[in-house]
Fold each of these.
Amino acid sequence: MVISKAIQEEVIQALIQRNGEVHRHRIEIGVRQVAARWHASDGSADDFHAFCRAHFYPREEQRELVFQRFLSKLESLFGNLHRIYRELHRELHVDTGPMLPIDSLFAGYDPFAHVQEDLFQTRLAFVALLNFPIYDLNTKNQDGINWSRRQWAEARLADYFRQRIPASVLQHRTATYTRADEYISKYNIHMDRLRVQGQPAGFPEGQKLISHWGLRDEIKALYAQPDGLPRQRLIYQIMNRILQQDIPEIVIDNPEVEWDPLANRVYRDGKPLPPPIPPEGNRRYQYLKSVFDAERGIDAHTPDTPSLIERRFLLDREIPEAEVERLITDVLSAPVLPSIARIIQQRLGRPLEPFDIWYVGLKPEPQIPEEDLDRQVRQQFPTVGAFQDKLVDILRRLGFSRDRAEYLAARICVEPARGAGHALGAEMRGDRAYLRTRVPGEGMNYKGFNTAMHELGHTVEQVLTLEEMDYYTLHGVPNTGFTEAFAFLFQSRDFEVLGISPETTHWMEWLAIHEMWSAFEIAGVALVDMRIWRWMYAHPSASPDDLKLAVLEIAREVWNQYFAPVLGVADQEILAIYSHIIDTGMYIPDYLLGHLIAYQIFHYMQDKDLAAEMERMCKLGRLTPQVWMHQAIGEPISADRLIQSATEAVRILQPSLE
Ligand SMILES: [Zn+2]
């Protein structure tokens, strides 16, 4: 630390003398917060002293003005930079016609890259740190229940400046994640090149699937085909070879060779390739290790949270690690799971196989043929413009008053998406949220409409949590699980909006069972992800080969403890196939939290007025997850609601299952 303890004490004493003993506590916190983040390049000890003298505001009226300045200037700064970001990404996100190579260069320009360091170098961050205390998660969760909105807004202001990580360290981390991400995003398997005993394995010409999402979704899709089982097993074998890394390097993303995943032989034009055929080896685990090393580089610069594990739980998720682990094990050991496994087994008419963790047949589907749905949707929404024009109608059908529907619709801009669709909220009032959706030439189809309803849920949340937020630093929701909850709610009301009654019996019951089975799968992956990071921190200098063995062992352990008893098969490693384990730095637990939070809010809303409740909840803004849940629905984040609903559903449906 550039500013020694002795200098800090000297400055604290000087400020107390100047401003009065009554300010001692605030002075001590402020001076220490600034000193902890003051670099040599910020100035000498004398500069530090002079800065603290000039910028400590003892009088409440002045402090109020400083606070207001931060609110309006940060909104302008972040809001306008976000508009630039949106414009630079326009061609990538919006279907504007053929792309030019320069479009991805514009998209690679990050207008936020230097903001944090600039705020420190201009000393603005230090003014905030000198006058507004940073609170830890415990204090926020315990005292925060009784805090005023203003106290929360001040706490969030200080949070912006909690970390000061040198730009070069951040750049190294970004580059590492980008490389890992590239490795993952190019990991394709050419399915039409797969062979079984010399014969094509039966996948359509030109089919290319990305690991693991594409492979997994193909396993899901094959449940609908009576002869899908051998291909499901083949895909499972491919996944195992990727995990074990004995997949031949030459078959990855390469349409030029044929591969027999069972025998693990490679052919070109039907003739066996001469040995040696090098396996991928341990590349997958090299990338994971590089992500770990990059995060270790950050550790030294975040002394309050000196590991990615602490940063993820205490700063990003704001739910302690032990609490998340309890939610995970609650799901994994839910007594209802064996009953759901029996339902699946009855439906499939065979003993369960490991990949049945992805069984999708429980999801309630409308009893209306897809073509009929497509036709109805196409009539109502022939173009992207039609969806924009009907926003007011759609919102009114969801229960918003005419006034509020018009207010919201005026702040949402619908555009044609290049990809599947997404929602991009604003960062300053007066701007608009962008709903990007895909509408083919012949008009919107049902799947597209269903996705557009999901994105509409996001954009309505984005408008409500910004435009009418009492303090800018509180805008938004605690984390992605909360915005997904609203998106899911809108999506689930799609028939209501179309004006059709789907006549699905026991819709709520099947939904609960489906959600429980999905939560089971993702909880397993989340636990594997967490245990891998613990292992890496316990063995910081392990080689990629050691890491590979550890990952596979962790995956088997979790499987044997929780999945083997339910599915009846032991010693599987499949939970480790999730690509995001490699390239996101322990993001997977967020999926489970999203599931649980979304289900709790969904359940709470069943007998309530969606529009009124959503408006009320969106006013809460960025509290911590537990405080938000407490104020929104009066219960903490918990797996109980989902487990209870699924248990009840199995009981209700049981007679028809016998
Ligand atoms: Zn979403």
Amino acid sequence: MDKKIGLFWLRDDFRFAKNNGLIEATSNHDQVVVFYLYKNDSYKDQEAQKWWLSKSLFNFRKKLNDLNISLEIVETNSFKIFFDKLIKKKDFSIYWNKVYEPDYLKFDEYLLRNFKNKNIHHKRLKGNVLNDVEEIKKSDGTPFKVFTPFWRTAEKYYVEKIPTKEKKIKKCKKKIKYFNNCIEPDKILPKKNWFKNFEKIWFPDEQRALKELQVFIKERITNYSEARNFPNIVGTSKLSPFIKFGQLHVETIWNECIKKKSRTIGTSKFLAEIGWREFNHSLINFFPHMLKDNYSKKFDKFPWEKNSEFLNAWKKGLTGYPIVDAGMRELYSTGWMHNRVRMIVGSFLVKHLLIDWKDGEKYFKNCLLDYSPANNVAGWQWVAGCGADAAPYFRIFNPILQGEKFDKEGEYVKNWVPELKNLSKKFIHKPWEFNDEKFRLGRDYPYPIVKHEEARAKALNAFKKI
Ligand SMILES: Cc1cc2nc3c(=O)[nH]c(=O)nc-3n(C[C@H](O)[C@H](O)[C@H](O)COP(=O)(O)OP(=O)(O)OC[C@H]3O[C@@H](n4cnc5c(N)ncnc54)[C@H](O)[C@@H]3O)c2cc1C
């Protein structure tokens, strides 16, 4: 055993299973301290995730306590300043898992160099992916830009890897304190308490994540390929925030899914969605410009329109298109939105309203509990048509037909837009065709802010300009 203190830098790794860095720290040291660096400005535009983060810290700290490991939350303005100070102490060894985002990986290089120069024992381990980003490239060494060949290669590579022996976290001898002036998880909570509703829906904890995974595999995975399209039912796993914060490792998901004797289409489709997550992480690391700009440069000349009135109507779920409004209200209320509806509301913003996808991305970032730079940026650019392997710009979702196809009875809409609850199936996705004493458009529900056919023609015209 190493006599020094083992430090584990906790990022998106709120779990015991397959937490490589924490497992290594407890194998090598009798005394381990887990620390979380809270940088206020990195959560500036991620209000919803402040809630998930705060609860995750609270719940994880309790679990770590039982193993005589303390979790200390340190507030800092800069990772660099923090580590430059820490490095002078020299009474520790340090471990952390990779986060597959360019800024994190770049900072890792700085740390690895400095720890090495100062002779401080350190180890950076694999994070929450199936394959490391560098492992999956085309045979000519260049990165994939299309999903299907990427996933074919990535899946095969993962399956053929020799599995490493699964280690467990060990209980430490004695709990110690290491950092001064630590903060409590509550300090991270958002100022506005709209998150109170989240507390009725989500429980940010590893045990809960594992349970939800089991329920999904037992009850829903077989029909996943079909059911995942319908927002009025729970057809998907709803595991995304747990995956984002690392309560679940994607290898655990993989292993549990393939335990099922026969691999159904549902299982393959579900694992392919995990594959999309891997693909998106590969994209943002090989093409980091796409985190801030269009992946496809030709979209730099796209004539987006600035229209704060439209943008606000979209955010508030007051566009006059029921399926769009339902989605935006689900997002605000629950911190999550169904994938089909994410595509519909995204398409509506960029194509019907001609508003830059970056404005939508920013709003999602603030409201989504599962926000991840890779998935959000790639999701938005897929919708807008400027991403890698994206939906072509000229394919414009018709929000009425999408509603009629995927929310046939209007149940999803009625749940989130209660002012439409008395409308029949015939009118639920086009309330402007309905009028009676009890329901007046403009009074009880907004007129559509744009007309579908006109907006479609305008979008196609704008596309011609690039
Ligand atoms: C405009 C837009 C923005 C999005 N922003 C995010 C985001 O910030 N964070 C995020 O995790 N997902 C994002 N997605 C992808 C997808 O909508 C969510 O991952 C999914 O809805 C989460 O629900 P689930 O866990 O029930 O998914 P399931 O269908 O059960 O899928 C299982 C897991 O696979 C991954 N996954 C599923 N679909 C996708 C996809 N299309 N792309 C990448 N990974 C996927 C997620 O980790 C998900 O939890 C976005 C999609 C769009 C169209």
